[in-house]
Amino acid sequence: MALRSGLVAVIEHVVTEEDTAIAVGSGDVPVLATPRLLALVEAATVRAVEGELGEGHTSVGTRVQLEHRRASGIGTRVTIRAELVDVHDGTLRFEVLAEDEHGELVGHGQITRVVVERERFLTRLRARA
Known about the structure:
Helix content is 23%, strand content 42%. The chain is α+β, with helices and mostly antiparallel strands. Strand 3 and strand 4 (91-100) form a beta hairpin. The longest helix has 15 residues, at 34-48. It is globular, with a radius of gyration of 16 Å.
């Protein structure tokens, strides 16, 4: 595994009714739900290291710090950016940022992921079930 700081992924997403707080049960207004924003920034972290983890490896989320600062209504285009800022002993720390089509900050934070051997991880999970 030769991961390095500076890997970046950008995802663009247009808010749909399925993305709203009403749809996911996190509120009663038709705006981008915080859990949906979290899913989008996590997807960007996964994409940032796609193809870089080595054969048989994946990463799993272990820590999230996310501030959702601005409401985004249905039809709003949101751009999500994740940058790998630190790599240490298989722990990956990302800075994440989301902006709307007007350049307004929607949310930002940090996500930590850990690199694991996929089969070993799944075997240990099955053993606990």
